[in-house]
Amino acid sequence: MGGNVTTDAASDAPTQRAGLAHGTRVLLTVAAAVVAFAGVWLARDVLAPAAVAAVVVIIAHPVRHPLERRGWPRWVATTAVIVVAYLILAVLAALLLFASAQFVALLPDYADELQATAASVADTLASMGLSDAASDATSSLLDPGTLVGFAASVADTVLGLATAFFFVLAYVIFMAADAARFARAGTVFGNARADGIGRGYFGGVRRYYVVNATFGAIVAVLDGLLLWALGIPIPIVWAILAFVTNFVPNIGFVLGLIPPAVLALVVGGWPLALVVVLAYSVINVTLQVLVQPKFVSDAVDLSLTLSFFSVVFWAFVIGPIGAILSIPLTLLVRALLVEPDDRAETLRRLSGNPVRDGSR
User: Fold this and answer.
1) Helix and strand tally (H, E) in the chain?
2) 253-290 tens-digit pLDDT
3) What are the b/e assignments for 173-187, b being 16+ CB within 10 Å?
4) Integer-rounded Cα radius of gyration of the chain
5) What pTM was estimated for this model as a whole?
6) 19: which DSSP letter?
7) CA 180, 360, 196 angle in degrees (round to 5)?
8) What residues have CB less than 8 Å from 202, skipping those under 6 apart?
């Protein structure tokens, strides 16, 4: 009897010591994540267009369902998805190109006003006791040369996006065709639970962009009418900027406010700039801070902290487009790594999603 106890104790010991300690597993997971995201960063010029194409195809994919229900051939439904995806890309590209061209053309007309405003800002900061370095650094933001350089960088960015646009167009064709092929399979991702997670992800991405596009259009119209009424130059450009930056969670409002506020300062002084800031705050805070987050939360179940961190993280990993794609990319990571794992209940809840599977 005593020998059996010893044997059992001996056999239990290796079981207790088997496997890595929890801390070691965490460190290995973090190290693997760093290596993986470093690889994404190195391949960002290829992966960023692919991510854009994937999101556009996800948004356009439901177009095929009513066509197939009416008995249309699958290749016609796939072509319809591609056409809708191309229309989305064409509208966005036209808006960005128009806004960039208008902004670049505006700067020479206000060179003198920019210089006068820069000098006034420098004098004001100096009178407030700020150091010359701080005064010069702040006023240099309004220097025509700085803004022309910024405009040139915007133009270069647009040119780079146009170059990547070709790859996006090609990716859309291939992804739309593959989506049609996968739709005919009984189980796309291996089992019913994985398919549920996939459907939840695709549906969440579509709902997220529908909500953002809707609120972005409302904010753009209101901001554009406001700036037009105040006499701010090229209000349509700032309305387009408000629409685009609405897709950047949390900080999009600030990004869309700075250019028209600076221009208001140049053409009308501090009173007009304060009016623009206050009016923007009333419109955008009411819609984007008080109303929109409720709809976004219902669409994607992401915590505000994770949403904000996602913008910074994905912008660093794949560039500026990462700020717009931050929510879909974060949802993808959660769908791949967190939702299938029953042991990741804590991570799932911290991310803002208490649901245990992909079905919603």
Assistant:
1) 16, 0
2) 888 888 888 888 888 888 888 999 998 888 887 887 77
3) bebbbebbeeeeeee
4) 26
5) 0.75
6) S
7) 45
8) 58, 61
